[in-house]
Write a structure and sequence with these properties.
The chain is mainly beta. It is 6% helix and 44% strand. The protein has a domain of 89 residues: 4 Propeller (Hemopexin), CATH 2.110.10. The chain starts with 7 loop residues before the first strand and ends with a helix. The N terminus is likely disordered. Pfam families: Hemopexin. This is 72 kDa type IV collagenase. Keywords: Disulfide bond, Repeat, Signal.
Length: 136
């Protein structure tokens, strides 16, 4: 699986490294285009694995792609604009994650985050990272 079992995925220019714990996965680094992304795309802003759909979403600028974990390839019909599919999620996000333990997903941009209910796919909170996550 691309990100479901991966603790960290980093990118630099047009390459990515995938780690499981502190071990670099075999055959990495590799070009991000090897996943079916456009060869002129040089950076992924955030990668988000949604446990309910078994899909991994890759965000770059104002667009996103959806990677099918079962088929090990990009789903057809992408990229799509973030604004057209993700209500209230801003362009150029910094990070995204899903916490299966609390049924929510989180999208981070600058000093703020959005909390999405995984059942309804609605944003239920907009908060400050410093206050709510770092407790300062």
């Amino acid at each position: 699986m691309l990100l479901n079992t991966v603790d960290r995925c980093t990118d630099s220019d047009d390459e990515m490294w995938v780690y499981s714990a502190s071990t670099l996965e075999r055959d990495y680094p590799k070009k991000i285009s090897s996943m079916g992304l456009p060869s002129d795309l040089h950076r992924i802003d955030a990668a988000y694995s949604f446990y309910k759909s078994k899909k991994t979403y890759l965000f770059a600028g104002n667009q996103f792609w959806r990677y099918n974990e079962a088929k090990k390839k990009m789903d057809p019909g992408f990229p799509k604009f973030i604004a057209d599919s993700w209500t209230a999620v801003p362009d150029d996000i910094d990070a995204a994650l899903s916490l299966t333990s609390d049924g929510h997903s989180y999208f981070f941009k600058d000093s703020h985050y959005l909390k999405m209910d995984d059942s309804t796919l609605k944003i239920v909170k907009v908060g400050e990272v410093k206050k709510d996550w770092l407790r300062c």
